[in-house]
Amino acid sequence: MNKGLGFKKIYLVLFSIFIFTVAFNDSKVQALELDKSNNTKMIVLFNENNIDTNVKDLIENDGGKVISTLPEIGGIEVECNTNIIPKIKSYNSVKSISPNHNILIPKEKTIKFRENLIRKSRSQVTGEDGDLYDLYQWDIKRVTNDGNSFQLETGNHDVVIGILDSGIDEKHPDLKNNLLGGENFIPKNFNGDETENGEPKDINDRLGHGTYVSGSIAGNGRIKGVAPNIGFKSYRVFDSKGNTNATIMSSAIIKATDDGANVINLSMSGYDLKGKCYWVDPNTGIKQDLGDDMAEYALYKRAIEYALNKNVTVVTSAGNDGIDCSDGQNITKFLNNRDKEEGFIYEGVAYQIPGSIEGVINVSGTGREDTIASYSNYGKYFVHIAAPGGDYSKTESMNVNDFCLSTSIGGQYMFEVGTSIAAPKVSAIAGLLLCQNKNLTPKEVAQKIYETSDKLDNDKSKQYYGEGMANAYNALEENK
């Protein structure tokens, strides 16, 4: 495995599908931008989930404004002058504060499905139900014991999987029958993008990633998902240019939970800090103490805890940087090296998120030979379970046989690789278990997936595969 892949420059959450080596070295998160009035968007996190109205009044009286409020988890997003950060921090009710970074999706490596590219007989590519599943979906077959799990359970619409991603192709023939709606969380004119209308019903996928992930879970047509009859809702948290932030993500997690989602899939990955965080204002040179942890990380963590406490199973992806995420000090060094030009200084231990948050099911990616993919993050006590995500070791020859096929925008199909392709397969298994027994808790769902996994003996420390390879057939047979 190439453990020397460069880190992407990130703050909170990045899609973990983006796997091409050039993209690893070149992709960068958009830096915090301050306008001439020295105003910036900040997250203020309060103690004990209680929002202090006195802090809101302070910000508004200083000429700032409250952009969004998350009373369920004690956080607010504000736009204010950075000079009042010490005043905000002086309130005992405030736990931490940090700029609300803009998160930019790096480029991804994909191969479009084109029948003239695929070395298969035209008589095999029929356009009929299941033809692409039969020919190309080795990853779904691996998880379902060559489709045998379909004889035990395929899902229903009483159990709903919430997919937080880039949206959905609502008209895709392989998805439309299982799509139960969703919501858009991208604000109007987000980051100055006039194509963003802010309409809650605008869940149209501009990027393709959300449509792809959805197919791995609930596809039912030419391709098959692990749960081909399960219901899902699409929550659009990435805009037309691939941006999001912590408040958008947290708001969507809360809404999916309140909407009655039974499982939430988070096919995304990033890093953040537990420890002391400082920020040097580039305009004034003043060093600001932002608190004992980044408010972004804590807000995100609270949102996931909110879901878990409401009996929602949360599945996450391990990330695509090919690094040992059990080494938090090494990640801290990386953050200091990468973020110093934006004025950040970190003291403490950094973690991958959301996979490091207690209670989630964190999934690493494997290639076709049941070995850890060259891009997949790993780590003892970090990875809980593995699932096929494909690999890109043969991309130069455009060998699609190592990629995973799923749905794409425009009613099309796409080959891709990444841990964000592995995670939805586990989300689907969780949903199927709940179809058999809706009373299972997130902890019980996780335990059944772990106990019925295929053990991979070459990983005695469990750093690469956790409990083993997820197996839908084994889990459903044991749960009967």
TrEMBL record:
Source species: Romboutsia sedimentorum
InterPro entries assigned to the protein according to its UniProt record, in alphabetical order: Lanit_process, Peptidase_S8/S53_dom, Peptidase_S8/S53_dom_sf, Peptidase_S8_Asp-AS, Peptidase_S8_His-AS, Peptidase_S8_Ser-AS, Peptidase_S8_subtilisin-like, Peptidase_S8_subtilisin-rel
A Pfam family assignment: Peptidase_S8
Protein name stated in the entry: S8 family serine peptidase
Family: Belongs to the peptidase S8 family.
Annotated keywords: Hydrolase, Protease, Serine protease
Active-site residues annotated for this sequence: 165 (charge relay system), 209 (charge relay system), 420 (charge relay system)
Cell wall biogenesis/degradation keyword on record: no
Transmembrane segments: none
Peptidase S8/S53 domain sequence ranges: 157-468
Domain of life: Bacteria
Database matches in Gene3D superfamilies: Peptidase S8/S53 domain
